[in-house]
Each structure stands twice: as C-alpha cells, then as structure tokens.
C-alpha cells in the first residue's frame, strides 16, 4: 500500500508593496498566516540546530590542567631564579660553585613552598 502525499505549491505574487501567496486552488493566504508559518518554521529550525549544537567544554577539566601547569611553572621558575642568582654570584666573586648549589637549593625550596600554597588555595575553593 503506497502512501500518497499531496504537496501544495505556493506561488508568490507581488501586489504593489505587499506580497501575497496564492495556492493552486485559488485561496489567498493572508500575510499574518504567512508570518505565523514562517515563525513556526524558524522555531523548528532553531530547535533542530540547538539539538545538534556541540556541548560546551567542562571548565573543571581545564582548570585542573591549568593548575597542574601552574604548579610545574612555579617549581621550575624557583629553580631557574635560584640557579641564575647562584651562577651570577659565583662569576662575580670568582668562587667555586658554592653559591650556585646554595641558591639552586633555595630556589627549589621556594618553588615547592609556592606549589604547596597553590594546592592549599585550591583545597579551600573546593
């Protein structure tokens, strides 16, 4: 059993400044009917588009990754600052790398302390 579908082709006619649609049977559709049909069609299109729209990324995933990178950068920055200060003092004073080792260890301690402070800050937020 075949299902037959009947399609009504609308013909748009220009009548001065107004447009009216005439169905093949000769019935004139009012402009309000046209605007209502267009509004319903726009609503249906909007619903279909919103259904297929990608979901926003979860901020928690990114904030955890950002926190991890922040902690790594704080540790490395502390090490590098301590290393540079120690190397600079050793080269200025002409000493063996005593200041280099000392300030590198101090930079490591400062980096770890800053990391721990960041971890405490995150725990308070959660």
Describe, in plain words, how this protein is organized in 3D.
The chain is mainly alpha-helical. It has two domains: about 10-50, no CATH class; about 60-125. It contains three helices and three strands. The protein has helices at about 30-50, 60-95, 100-125, and strands at about 10-15, 20, 30. It has a three-stranded antiparallel beta sheet with strand order 1-2-3. β1 and β2 form a beta hairpin. α2 packs antiparallel against α3. The longest helix has about 35 residues, at about 60-95. It is rod-shaped and about 95 Å long. It starts with 10 loop residues before the first strand and ends with a helix.
Distance between the termini: 64 Å
Amount of helix: 55-70%
User: Judging from the principal axes of the Cα atoms, what is the shape?
Assistant: rod-shaped
* Major beta sheet summary: 3 strands, antiparallel
- Overall average residue pLDDT: 77
Spell the H/E element sequence: EEEHHH
The total beta strand count reads 3
Which terms summarize this structure?
126 residues, mainly alpha, 3 helices, 3 strands, 67% helix, disordered N terminus
């Amino acid at each position: 059993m075949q299902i037959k579908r009947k399609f009504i082709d609308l013909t748009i006619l220009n009548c001065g400044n107004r447009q009216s649609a005439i169905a093949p049977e000769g019935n004139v559709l009012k402009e309000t009917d046209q605007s209502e049909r267009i509004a319903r069609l726009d609503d249906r299109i909007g619903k279909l588009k919103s259904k297929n729209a990608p979901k926003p990324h979860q901020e928690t995933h990114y904030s955890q990754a950002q926190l991890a990178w922040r902690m790594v950068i704080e540790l490395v920055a502390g090490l590098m600052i301590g290393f540079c200060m120690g190397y600079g003092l050793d080269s200025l004073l002409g000493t063996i790398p005593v200041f280099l080792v000392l300030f590198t260890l101090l930079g490591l301690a400062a980096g770890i302390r800053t990391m721990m402070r960041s971890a405490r800050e995150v725990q308070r937020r959660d």
